[in-house]
Structures are given as structure tokens and as C-alpha cells.
Amino acid sequence: MVAPGPIIIELGELDAAHAAYGYEGRAGQAVRKLKFNRSTSLAPFMAAEIVRVATGLTYDFVCPVPIHLLRWCSRGFNQAELLCAEFPRSERQDLLRRIRFTRPQVGLSAQDRRTNLVGAFQSQLNLAGKHVLVIDDVVTTGGTARECAKVLKSAGAARVELVVFASQN
Fold it and tell me: Is residue 110 over pLDDT 80?
């Protein structure tokens, strides 16, 4: 797998975005196998790569992108939670809650991706001055990450960065 160049996404409320790999080739295959084929044996390697990318970043918490309970029930796991497993438990926090079921982002146009998740997340925590790393498997347009960052910043987070296993940009 080859590490990508700079990630080019609309950052919006995100302060920065980082990826271990580009989505092409084996990295994309790993993401698809984990998420759609339930190949959870890939998660430890992917999680270690996310920690590698996060090394040197300053943060208070890591936060997996939450999935809706209905999606969790059909898949059996949240891939973003699995990708946080290599971080110390004291750093892993469920800072966000998925409050609205949405269509999967796969197959949506860039415009639909930007609007599909509006209002889907909630945080009732006081994150004043905290730096948060949002963890996910893949970034395409950045719509999910921007919506998470918007909610985290409205809860007081001073800085929100995205760390993903693969970037489609």
C-alpha cells in the first residue's frame, strides 16, 4: 500500500484531515472487506495504521464516527469503533451519538453526501477547549467528518481533526 499525497477535501469545520493510505488498490479492498464482508480480522492492522498516522498529533480524545443502531444491528459492529481499538481506553470516547438514520453515503452524489448527514449527530457534552480526533475508515467528500466536526465544535471543541485509514482523494 502506498501512502497518499495531501488529502483534498472541503474541510469546513475540520481543522485538518489525515489518511494512512489512498483508497486505490489494497487499502480500498481492506475497507470494503471490513465494512461489507465483515472481515473484522483486518481491523487490528487498520487500527495500528490509524495510530501510526495519529502519532505526533496533539489531541485529548479520539472519537469514532457513530453509526445508527439500525445499521449496527444489520452489520453487527461499527467499523470506526474497531479502528479506535489501538488507542488507550482513556483516550477513546463516544463524544457523538447518531440520532437520525440516513441513507448510506455509498452511491450518493457529492451534493447528496453533503446534505445526507445534516442533523444526524448529537453531542451533549462540554468539550470546551478540547482537541478531538475523529476516526473513520474512509473519507470521500468529507461530508460525514464535517458534520461530526460541526457538532463537536458546537459542544465547545477547540480543534477537530479527521484520521482515516483510506482517502478517496
Answer: no
Which is it for the CA torsion 73, 155, 85, 103, positive or negative?
positive
Question: Where does 76-137 have alpha helices with state H?
Answer: 79-82, 110-116
Closest Cα to residue 120, out of 136, 135, 103?
A: 103
**Residue 115 pLDDT greater than 90, yes or no:** no
- Which grid coordinates belong to 45? 492492522
Domain extent at residue 57? 16-167
Other CB atoms within 10 Å distance of the CB of residue 155: 18
> Mean of the per-residue pLDDT values for the chain?
89
CATH of the domain at 68: 3.40.50
Spell 76-103 as b/e; 16+ CB within 10 A means b: eebbbbbbbbbbeeeebbebbebeeebe
